[in-house]
Design brief:
Shape: elongated
Order of helices and strands: HHHHHHHH
Number of strands: 0
Distance between the termini: 74 Å
Helix content: 55-70%
Strand content: under 5%
Number of helices: 8
Length: about 180
């Protein structure tokens, strides 16, 4: 009798048994939830009138824009999740799922201050664009080598493209790439 040797070549990754909306709580999530609550409280101070209503509306819109499902975002629930007075792991998990929507909805200055998001404010973006534009003009007027001028020009274009919304920046850069052969 002959023996046959073969390998089991099933390289497919096993499918996760958890859906996207199920979240496994981690050890430091409660600290992050408290940081988010502190940031939301600070955000409320910057808003006139019905601050909690405005915050809830903006977070709900951002959650819907991100395609979030499974969590009802209304004023009562959002603040119940954030306060989490009973130390419920379920509420902590909800806050962790909503964390991106909350940080994207709030002003970047507050989110950055509390470590929820990175990025630059509009004023910082404009200042950087002005600086890069000035460096590009200076390189041209001083007659610096072409490589240095090209570098400064590229940095100028990137800084100005950063001023545009994300979807427009890509379009502008694509148009510049299409026009590039005309300038060589």
């Amino acid at each position: 009798m002959q023996s046959v040797a073969f390998e089991h070549l099933n390289r497919l990754k096993p499918a996760s048994l958890k859906t996207e909306n199920q979240y496994e709580p981690r050890r430091r999530d409660n600290l992050r939830r408290q940081a988010i609550l502190t940031a939301v409280r600070e955000w409320e101070l910057t808003l006139p009138g019905q601050a909690q209503d405005i915050v809830t509306q903006l977070v709900a819109e951002q959650w819907a824009k991100e395609g979030g499902r499974g969590i009802t975002v209304n004023k009562q629930n959002l603040y119940r999740y954030l306060k989490n007075e009973t130390n419920s792991s379920k509420y902590t998990a909800y806050v962790m799922q909503l964390a991106d929507a909350i940080s994207m909805a709030m002003p970047i200055e507050i989110a950055r201050k509390h470590g929820l998001r990175q990025g630059k404010t509009d004023f910082e973006l404009v200042a950087e664009a002005i600086k890069e534009c000035g460096e590009h003009h200076q390189a041209k007027l001083l007659g610096l080598p072409t490589k240095k001028q090209a570098k400064e020009g590229f940095e100028n274009l990137l800084a100005n493209a950063a001023l545009l919304p994300g979807e427009l920046a890509g379009v502008v850069i694509a148009h510049l790439q299409a026009l590039a052969p005309l300038f060589t």
